[in-house]
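As a warm-up, study this chain.
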Amino acid sequence: MANLKQQFGARLKLLRTQKGITQESLAAQTDLTIESISNIERGIFGPRFGNLEKIAAVLNVEVKLLFDF
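Now compare it with the structure written out below.
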């Protein structure tokens, strides 16, 4: 079973791709680096609370939906 960071990353990637948003675009709109988005999606590390809110806003979803896995 994947750990929490890996599950979160997979969910983020799914939602991002469903919305047709690239990693580059998500990074630019959240003031994060492309490397940070990539690392989150690969489960290397998890986002901080403030960045969770930014990511959810760009994806136009509630934060809790990011954890629906």
